[in-house]
Design brief:
The protein is an all-alpha fold. The protein has helices spanning about 1-5, 10-25, 30-40, 45-70, 75-95, 105-135, 140-170, 170-190, 200-205, 215-220, 220-235, 235-240, 245-255, 255-285, 290-305, 315-340, 345-355, 355-370, 380-405.
Length: about 400
């Protein structure tokens, strides 16, 4: 910890963490679903509004991929500015959606989902890469701090969105948030830099004592597929739940479900933020693969609990909180697991490749899961339990492969 405090990259980490807080609004889409449904006066299906979240998460990954490649050509601060700017512009354009519904929902998909998702991914990966490279000996802690605020965003923005919508309407809320985004980005983007951009050769050259895989090289390894596919199956549970807290609660607990949905969104924000900080630290103690296996197993158990239709509301909330904790933890541990396996030099682009699994999960699995019944049905959670179990098997295979390498 003392080394972290004395590192000149502490300013980069602090500024990046504040930016991550605003970028984390990517996970607050469920707070917009009900207000937009009212705005459209029922002309757009609720599930069509929820689909925005899938567009955004998919494009979030594309932004991460682009960031990994662009970091070789552009300074980190310019990528951060571009990312924050795209997010702000996307939210602003989305505010011009027509009440008529129909094709107008595509404006939200393109503006908030595509532009916003690309922008968040571009800035997010840049900030994460900077955190790891400034603190190569404390990667778990630095990454955990950086992504913790990203997950904490729902705690702040979920009630804020609800208050703003009540006071000014959903359209004005989008414009207010867009203005806040651009102001914060302009204030902090210049602080984001990589060690080599700051002429800090000690940090830039640290942790390079092992093979540094390029992205084309990792595609030829089985461990890349173990990691990527495990992320794909593991995150399916959270991606199915995230835009549906209100409707899931309403389906199970009646009219009080709407308010319960907001409460759950705030609880999951806290749980996700804590997971993002604690799981990377756990990885520093027991190993990244071990920490990853632990959170996947916890998700398996929680999905089983959610599949019990008669479960009391407190157990329902607790299971979702555990899933959010584990999902948040994955955001902190998977980047470090990637750099541990393949080296830190190309971690920006390598982690982008791993995140393809994240994109597939976000875009495809929620729609597939809904084929198995109404949101919240036991059959859906049986499928999610199986998916999480597959992820656990893949990480076990990764750990077993590493043990074989150590023996040789």
């Amino acid at each position: 910890m003392s080394k972290l405090k004395s590192n000149p990259g502490i300013g980069v980490l602090a500024a990046g963490s504040v930016l991550q807080l605003f970028l984390g609004i990517i996970y607050c889409w469920s707070a917009f679903v009900a207000p937009l449904n009212s705005y459209f006066e029922g002309k757009v299906k609720v599930n069509d509004i929820k689909l925005t979240s899938q567009f955004m998460l998919c494009c979030f990954v594309l932004g991460i991929l682009a960031s990994g490649q662009l970091q070789r050509k552009f300074k980190a601060k310019w990528l951060t500015l571009a990312g924050g700017g795209l997010m702000a512009v996307g939210m602003f354009i989305a505010s011009f959606v027509s009440k008529n519904g129909g094709g107008s929902v595509w404006l939200i998909y393109i503006a908030y989902g595509v532009l916003g998702g690309l922008g968040v991914g571009l800035a997010y990966n840049t900030v994460i890469t900077c955190a790891q490279k400034w603190f190569p000996k404390n990667r778990g802690l630095a990454t955990g701090i950086s992504v913790c605020t990203f997950g904490f965003a729902t705690v702040i923005f979920a009630p804020l969105v609800k208050s703003l919508v009540g006071a000014t309407g959903v359209i004005s809320t989008l414009r207010i948030l867009a203005g806040a985004f651009i102001l914060v980005t302009l204030a902090l983007f210049s602080f984001i830099k990589l060690p080599d951009e700051a002429a800090n050769t000690a940090a830039a050259n640290a942790a390079l004592d092992k093979k540094q895989y390029t992205t084309s090289e990792i595609l030829k390894t089985k461990n890349f597929y173990f990691i990527t596919l495990s992320m794909m199956f593991f995150t399916a549970t959270y991606f199915f739940l995230n835009p549906s807290f209100g409707t899931l609660a309403a389906n199970r607990y009646g009219e009080s479900g709407g308010d319960l949905g907001i409460i759950i969104l705030q609880i999951t924000g806290v749980a996700s933020a804590i997971g993002r900080l604690l799981v990377p630290l756990l990885g520093d103690k027991i190993g990244r693969a071990g920490a990853t296996l632990s959170i996947i197993c916890a998700t398996v158990l929680s999905a089983i609990v959610l599949g019990i239709s008669g479960a009391p509301s407190f157990l329902f909330i607790a299971a979702i909180a555990v899933i959010a904790f584990c999902y948040g933890g994955s955001s902190g541990v998977y980047p470090v697991l990637t750099s541990e396996q393949f080296g830190i030099k190309h971690v920006g682009s390598n982690y982008g490749a791993v995140m393809v699994g994240f994109a597939v999960s976000a875009l495809v699995f929620p729609s597939i899961i809904r084929l198995f019944g109404e949101d919240g049905s036991s059959a859906q959670f049986v499928v999610l339990t199986i998916m999480a179990f597959i992820a656990a098997v893949l990480i076990f295979l990764l750990m077993n492969d590493k043990k074989k390498e150590q023996k040789n």
